[in-house]
Amino acid sequence: MNLIIRLLVTAIVAFVLTKILPGVHFEGFSTAIIFAIVLGLLNIIVKPILSLFGLPLTIITLGFFALVINAIIILIADYFIDSMVVHGFWWAFIFSIALSIVTSLANSMFSDGD
Questions:
Q1: Do 56 and 98 form a contact (C-beta atoms < 8 A)?
Q2: Among candidates 44, 91, 43, which has minimal Cα distance to 69?
Q3: Is the pLDDT of residue 1 over 90?
Q4: pLDDT per residue over 43-53, tens digit each?
Q5: SS3 per residue for 83-104
Q6: Are residues 65 and 57 in contact, defined by beta-carbon separation less than 8 angstroms?
Q7: 91 with 24: CB under 8 angstroms?
Q8: Rounded CA gap, 55 and 66, in Å?
Q9: Which of 29, 32, 84, 114 is deepest in the core (most CB within 10 A)?
Q10: In the Cβ-directed half-sphere of 103, how many Cα atoms lie within 13 Å?
């Protein structure tokens, strides 16, 4: 049940952010749900590989490169989802930072203290 709530929170936050940020577009809320599922899968499968290869850069940049990896994950999701449009790396970067912050806050409000 916790997974479903997290996916819904991510989908809602992503959908709202697309209304605020002009460089990221979803065709509808169903696209946001698909995005949340694809993002979860990419975070499980691709992100550890990118983080491993990017570890030296992450250390050198004191963690800043981890934000770049998050933006790359957003761009990969954009590649797989036809009804999602991201207008370049910088919009993916801004979207990933905003999504991380707002989703973390929302998930902390909905967590049951376990």
A1: no
A2: 43
A3: no
A4: 999 999 999 99
A5: CEEECCHHHHHHHHHHHHHHHH
A6: yes
A7: yes
A8: 9
A9: 32
A10: 21
